[in-house]
Amino acid sequence: MNHFDRRLFLTGTAGAAGLVMLGGLAVPARAAGPLTVGVLIPGSKSDKGWMESGFDGLQAAEKKLGAKITVKYIENVKFGDMEQVLVALAGKNDLVIGVGGQTQASVFKVAPRFPKVKFAIIGGNADPKKPDNVSGYDVRQAEIGFVAGAAAAMLSKNGAVSYVGGLEIPAIKNTGKEFGNGARYVNPKIKYIENYTGDFDDVAKAKEATLAAIAQGADVHYHILNLGLRGMEQAAREKGTHVIGSYTDRCGTDPLYVAYSVTGVGFQVEYAIEQAAAGTWKPEFKPFGLAMGPKSSDMVICKGTPEQKAKLEEIKKDLLSGKIKVLDA
Amino acid sequence: MTALVLSMPDRRRVLALSIPFLAVIGSMAIGLLLIAASGKSIPDAIEAFLDGAFGTAFALGASINRAVALSLIGLGFILAARANLTNVGGEGQIAVGGIAATAIALWPPVAGLPLGLAVILPLLAGTLAGAVWGGIAGVMKVRFGTNEVISTLLLGFVALLMVYWCVQSTALLRQPQTSSSTLPESLPIPDSTKLPGLTNDPGSPLHIGLILCLLLALAIAIVLQRSTFGLRLRAIGLNELAARRAGMPGSILLVVALGIAGAFGGLAGAIMLQGEQFYLKAGFSSGYGFDGLVVGLLSRGSTIGVLAGALFFGFLRSGGISMEIMAGVPSALTVVIQGLIVIAIAGSVILVEKLEGGRR
Amino acid sequence: MEETLAIFIASTLRLAMPLMLAASGELVSERAGVLNLSLEGMMLTAAFFGALGSWATGNPYLGVGCAVGAALCVAAVQAWLSVNLRANQLVIGIGFNILALGATTLLYRIIFGGLSREEIPGLPKLSVPGLSDLPFRRRRLRCRSSAASSRIAPCP
After folding, report:
1. Treating both helix axes as pointing N-terminal to C-terminal, what angle do B303-327 and B209-226 enclose, rounded to 10 degrees?
2. A150 and which of A182, A288, B7, B32 could share a cystine (Cβ 3.0–4.6 Å)?
3. A141-262+295-321 in CATH: which number?
4. In this predicted model, what pLDDT tens digit does every residue of A158-201 receive, in sequence order?
5. Which of B297, B330, B337 is opposite residue C91, by nearest beta carbon?
């Protein structure tokens, strides 16, 4: 290598960067009028799971409120870029929503710099360090996991049910535990198999985990997965077993699914936007779950018998009254 | 060398200079066409890009901070490349650097140390951890003949999983579990261990990592061009056998070269953690190791090239973020444009070489 | 115990299939002295076009043809850049990986609408006579695209 060509080549590259720089430094102005909403979706908005559910809620709010709001969003944000994304969103919006607990640390860091902007964290937890302009909405996945476990135990013919979770983070592990508790609540002798793939989006591993559970007798599977759900579907379809959906009630669209839990990620996005649009938004920590109604959290058995429905209602009531206690998540 | 520059016809020189420039412009133009094809407004996209990259003090600072991390990876890369070693483990070296820096910063006695030691010790710990990580690949190469492309890459995966392990286990770096929903992250590092800012403006994230990076770039340039060590690395890189016959300590040089490359990666990790992120969490390295690798590869061995490339990629990422938020350009499209730019710059190299008068 | 072992072996074989195919290809290019770093990108591209072809024609074999054809096109461009233009093989490989990741995501969103729940026709299971009767019976032939792309998984 000789030095000369390199230098030329590189000065050229530097020049290219410089030229782009010349046009910069425009001053942004905040538009008056509709409520501006900025949403950070850490994963893919079409992941069939958490992120997609959040994005659906955003679209629902847009449809409902129409010209009263304008929405900007960004998906697939890595940790190294998260703070910059939040600052960019906060600089130009009235309300900033982080879809997922993984945004919490960055939101806590950015929020104090933008005291006039409202921040909401979906899947946030009750943290004493919470700044004054942030609200955290707790999904309470473990609670509905308990009900899903009960439903699975009612639907299982073999007396064995299974759960596949993605990352081993508290919300996901607690949901798995409570799913097992729920199943045992209905049928104390039930066999419960749980498994974590370490990745919400790994199709192959989710499939293998499900096949392994099927081989041990499980015939109803619950999950907290995103794209990885496709693997579980394939395994269940091959072996003639059934799946319980996790986020949205889609009864009737696919015979593979015998029941759905509703986990209101999208509902919370909608809630934050509606509250802010109506001027009633306040910084708070709010557990959603069953307490906020069927759009926030619910359990549906698609062709459920009246007895099954009654039993589910009873369990939900006991959860609400505190007769059955579950882990936070 | 200088004589050569002057003897080159000016027209050719300008042409050669403009080629990477044209490659970038060309791929950006294709990107703009794609943006138009996806039904978004081109002026909006350009405005969003510029605003995101340079529009605010924060964006500017964040882009430069990102460039600092990329530069460090790139600098380590070109040093090892001088000895014909390819270090593709930047991502893992960032990871171990981050782990070590967090561990030391969270060690209670460190936060109270005077004279800036509270900042310096974690930085050194990160650097050392990175050096060990790179050095392992070096030892494997000289002892067992393991190809360093494979070993550094695989060590990278090990390191990424180690971060996951560290933040999953309270016995390691996970914050005390106060409830069952405590997130798998470390505690935030104490204020005294954070890198001091460069400006008084609280709205700018720019920190002294920039100065450190520039000093190290200067040091690398001097080492590579003026020192015996640089010459030896080059000799080893050109012909290992001949260099050994000439009495150079070949094995030691190879291990040291990969160790230094790793040290730069570890330092980058420590700076990312102490400069901006403050918490250790799984995935904190954010792919910067791989971006830094591309920067190092495209620089063709020049320190100025590393700095220019790192700035370019740093601003590109900022601009891309803003294009997505402000102009609704799909993030996948920004990724496509990045890929095109990398390919275009690499592919245009031969033209530069031809314009130099077929010297290869 | 035996059951668990059978599951383990079968999973290993299944998950190893795409790796074995990809690695065999890499072996060929290594022999020729070319470092092909963009295997990941090629697999993504092939997975996408395999799924697209399979979905559009309804025939999984045509899908495999599409997949191979698409990967060949990528390989040809890459070869031209890194052999004829002597561009750095590592950079070109990385560049193509980035490009493939972006392009397949983008095309998936455009063609499958982002929210598709469409099932892609997959390859039939292959029973190996003799082997199939063993307690460890599993299918051996796998559509090469299934595990490669987590975006669409074409083998049901």
Report:
1. 150
2. A182
3. 3.40.50.2300
4. 999 999 998 887 788 889 999 999 999 999 999 999 999 988 88
5. B297
